[in-house]
Design a protein that fits this description.
By secondary structure, the protein is mainly α. The protein has a single domain, classed as Orthogonal Bundle (Ribonucleotide Reductase, subunit A), CATH 1.10.620. The protein has 14 helices and no strands. Helix 3 packs across helix 10, helix 7 runs antiparallel to helix 8 and helix 7 packs across helix 9. The protein is globular, with a radius of gyration of 22 Å. The two termini are about 30 Å apart. The C terminus is likely disordered. The structure holds fe (ii) ion (2 copies). One fe (ii) ion binds next to helix 5.
């Protein structure tokens, strides 16, 4: 499913009547991604069309920032400058999905801006020479970033946590640059240029987080078991991208931790719990427990039958509501352009989702209204 396989003709006969085949689920997810991507690209151009050179008054950057801040900026730059590796690997992984592969190109162009902006920040801090930066870049580029997981669903889930973690890093850097840090060594810094850079990039990261989050919600809605399993696996071994590639990573991580920007506590509270809330998952414990219970249910190989217990693992009502809302957003966009005249994106309920009598009644009503 995750690799957007061609429709399998045998699939249909294996699916019990009334349920969606995997091919149909894949088609629905792909349509959702395509619609979301079109909406995203337009939104990105309208609201976040900044330039890493021209959008900031670089010459006004403070020249006496504490060395810890420079170490952090350098680390941000080091991670972001792998944008071509991130992009080429991810594009290749999802190349058969129009919505996802085209999105990854757009995403890559935004990540590339982040790399250039952080490099400018390092340069204009006045504390690293252009020669030093050039050598550092060469060292970084001698390594290649590879995908953290072999399949598309795990990488999609990973990206949700990674984007949120990155956003958090930048928001906390913004706070420092606004003089809001409570750490003695970082107190009272006021660098409006740096604060704006951090804020601008954090807004992009929030948009990335949202795109991938909507993607994971669609997978969670149509393929709850595999998706929850992927979430469990990803949080079990989460680390920031390029941690193995950046030569001075430990110094960077230590500095980031001491600055109160990011560490295990922030990951728990401001990354994992936030993403869980957005995915209708109560806690890590509830997730692991739910998966364990699901495994106790007999498995009818090849069918869609074994998902009964999985529905207790997360708030499927919330996720269905979110997937519906996503489709309304896509439909509004399509109406705006005129796509609806030809081939509108439709939301299709997953019939496996358990329904209370009341819910079933309302969903029949709305079906009748159509
Ligand atoms: Fe970024
Ligand atoms: Fe990002």
């Amino acid at each position: 499913m995750a690799d957007i396989l061609p429709p399998d003709m045998l699939e249909r006969s294996r699916t019990s009547p009334g349920l969606l085949s995997n091919a149909e689920k894949d088609r629905l997810i792909e349509r959702g991604f395509l619609g979301l991507y079109r909406w995203y690209a337009s939104r990105s151009q309208e609201t976040r069309n900044w330039n890493p050179d021209r959008s900031f008054d670089w010459r006004a950057m403070k020249q006496d920032l504490p060395p810890e801040v420079i170490t952090v900026l350098q680390g941000f730059f080091a991670v972001e400058q792998y944008a071509p590796d991130f992009t080429s690997n991810l594009v290749h992984l999802v190349r058969r999905s129009h919505g996802r592969s085209h999105f990854q190109l757009r995403w890559g162009s935004e990540e590339e801006k982040h790399a250039d902006a952080w490099e400018n920040a390092v340069l204009f801090s006045g504390q690293r020479s252009p020669q030093w930066i050039a050598e550092y870049k060469e060292r970084l580029k001698s390594q290649t970033w590879e995908l953290p997981f072999p399949d598309a669903i795990h990488n999609l889930v990973y990206t949700v946590f990674q984007e949120r973690a990155t956003q958090l890093n930048y928001l906390n850097m913004m706070q420092i640059a606004q003089g809001k840090s409570t750490r003695p060594h970082l107190k009272g810094i006021a660098d409006p240029v740096l604060a704006r850079v951090a804020q601008t990039i954090a807004v992009d990261e929030a948009a990335h987080y949202n795109f991938f989050l909507e993607g994971v919600r669609m997978y969670l809605y149509y393929y709850p078991e595999r998706t929850l399993e992927a979430i469990k696996n990803v949080i079990g071994q989460f680390s920031m991208p390029a941690a193995q590639l950046v030569p001075d990573w430990n110094a960077f991580f230590e500095t980031v931790y001491r600055a109160g920007i990011y560490g295990p506590r922030e990951f728990q509270r401001d990354v994992m719990q936030v993403a869980f809330r957005n995915l209708g998952i109560e806690s890590r414990k509830a997730l692991e427990e739910g998966i364990r219970k699901t495994r106790e249910v007999p498995d009818f190989e090849g069918g869609n039958f074994k998902t009964t217990a999985i529905w207790d693992t997360f708030d499927y009502g919330q996720v269905e509501g979110d997937v519906r809302r996503l489709h309304v957003k896509i439909q509004d966009y399509e109406k705006n352009i005129g796509f609806d005249l030809y081939d509108p994106t439709e939301f299709v309920e997953n019939p496996e989702v358990p329904r209370t009598r009341r819910e079933a009644a309302t969903s029949n009503e709305s079906a009748a209204d159509d």
